[in-house]
Amino acid sequence: MSDTSSALSVAGFRLSGVRAGIKKREGLDLGLIVADAPVPTAAVFTRNRVKAAPVLLAAERVRSGKAQALLVNSGCANACTGKEGLAAARASCAAVARALGIRAELVLPASTGVIGQLLPAGKVEAAVPALVTGLDAGGVDPFSRAILTTDRGPKVAQVRLRIGGRAVTVLGVAKGAGMIHPDMATTLGFVLTDARVGAPLLRRLLRGATDATFNALTVDGDTSTNDTLVAMASGRAGNAALAPAGRDAARLGGALEEVLGALGRMIVGDGEGAGHVVTFEVSGARTAADARQVARTIATSSLVKTALHGKDPNWGRILAAAGRSGVDFSPDRVDIRVGDVLIVRRGLAVGEEAERRAHEVMSGSDYTVHVKLGARGASARYLTCDLSAEYVRINADYRS
Amino acid sequence: MSDTSSALSVAGFRLSGVRAGIKKREGLDLGLIVADAPVPTAAVFTRNRVKAAPVLLAAERVRSGKAQALLVNSGCANACTGKEGLAAARASCAAVARALGIRAELVLPASTGVIGQLLPAGKVEAAVPALVTGLDAGGVDPFSRAILTTDRGPKVAQVRLRIGGRAVTVLGVAKGAGMIHPDMATTLGFVLTDARVGAPLLRRLLRGATDATFNALTVDGDTSTNDTLVAMASGRAGNAALAPAGRDAARLGGALEEVLGALGRMIVGDGEGAGHVVTFEVSGARTAADARQVARTIATSSLVKTALHGKDPNWGRILAAAGRSGVDFSPDRVDIRVGDVLIVRRGLAVGEEAERRAHEVMSGSDYTVHVKLGARGASARYLTCDLSAEYVRINADYRS
Question: ipTM higher than 0.85?
Answer without folding.
Answer: no
